[in-house]
Design goal:
three-stranded antiparallel sheet; mainly alpha; 2 domains
Length: 226
C-alpha cells in the first residue's frame, strides 16, 4: 500500500463518510490523486462507498496503527515515510497526466474526423445552389431544355448560366455541357442509330444540324464539324 493510500485510509478512519473532495482538501493532495487512491482501496476491499457519496472504512480492515504514516521510529523513519509518500504522489500524478494525454489524443482524432466529414461553407453553398435551382435540376436530369422553358425556370438571366459554364445554348435549346460532350462522342453517327435515340438526343441532333455543326455524309452517317 502506498503512502498516499495509507494517509487516505487513516483520514477516513477518523472522518467516516468523507467525500473525495473533503479528503483532498484536508490532506492537501490533488483531487485526482485522492480519487485514484480511493479506487485502489475500494478494489482492495479496505473501503466502501456510502449512499451519500462519501467513503467508509470496512469493519475488520486493518487497525489504525497499521495505516498511521507518523507511527514511531524516530526522524529516520519519518524521513523515509515522507520520501516514499512523495514518490507515491509523483507516480499518481504521472498516471493522471498519461490518462489526460490519452483523452486529449482521442479528442483530437475525433475532431479531425469530424472536420473531414463537414464540407466547407462555400462547398455547401455550391451544392445547395445546384440542388435548389430548378433550371439546373432539369438540365441535370434531362440533359437539355428549350430556351422558352429555360427562361421560365431560370432564377437569373440565361447569360449568367452560360458564363458560369453550367449551360450551353444550341439552337432552340439550352444544353447541359456533360450531356453535349457525351453526345458528341457518338459521332460519326449512322442513320440507323437515330431510331435508338432518346427524344432529347434527337432534339439536340436537329439543333446541331440547323446550326450547321453536323452534316449528313454520303446519305449514310452524320458527322460533326470541328
Amino acid at each position: 500500500m502506498s503512502g498516499v493510500d495509507r494517509k487516505v485510509l487513516a483520514f477516513l478512519k477518523s472522518n467516516p463518510g468523507a467525500t473525495p473532495r473533503e479528503v483532498a482538501d484536508a490532506l492537501g493532495l490533488p483531487y485526482n490523486v485522492v480519487r485514484h487512491a480511493l479506487l485502489r482501496l475500494r478494489e482492495a476491499g479496505y473501503v466502501i462507498r456510502s449512499s451519500r457519496g462519501g467513503y467508509l472504512v470496512r469493519v475488520g480492515f486493518p487497525a489504525l496503527d497499521d495505516v498511521e504514516v507518523t507511527q514511531g521510529g524516530g526522524s529516520d523513519s519519518r524521513s523515509s515515510a515522507s520520501v516514499a509518500e512523495l514518490v507515491g504522489v509523483i507516480e499518481e500524478l504521472k498516471s493522471v497526466v498519461m490518462e489526460l494525454k490519452a483523452r486529449v489524443d482521442r479528442l483530437e482524432q475525433e475532431i479531425n474526423l469530424l472536420k473531414k466529414g463537414i464540407p466547407t461553407h462555400k462547398a455547401r453553398q455550391r451544392k445547395d445552389k445546384k440542388v435548389t435551382d430548378p433550371l439546373l435540376s432539369i438540365l441535370s436530369s434531362k440533359g437539355l431544355v428549350t430556351l422558352s422553358e429555360a427562361r421560365k425556370l431560370a432564377s437569373k438571366p440565361i447569360e449568367v448560366y452560360v458564363n458560369e459554364g453550367v449551360a450551353i445554348p444550341v439552337g432552340d435549346y439550352l444544353v447541359n455541357p456533360e450531356f453535349l460532350n457525351r453526345f458528341k462522342k457518338k459521332f460519326p453517327l449512322s442513320v440507323g442509330e437515330i431510331e435508338k435515340m432518346s427524344p432529347e438526343e434527337r432534339g439536340l441532333l436537329d439543333s446541331l444540324i440547323k446550326e450547321g455543326l453536323v452534316y449528313l455524309h454520303a446519305g449514310r452517317e452524320y458527322r460533326i464539324i470541328g
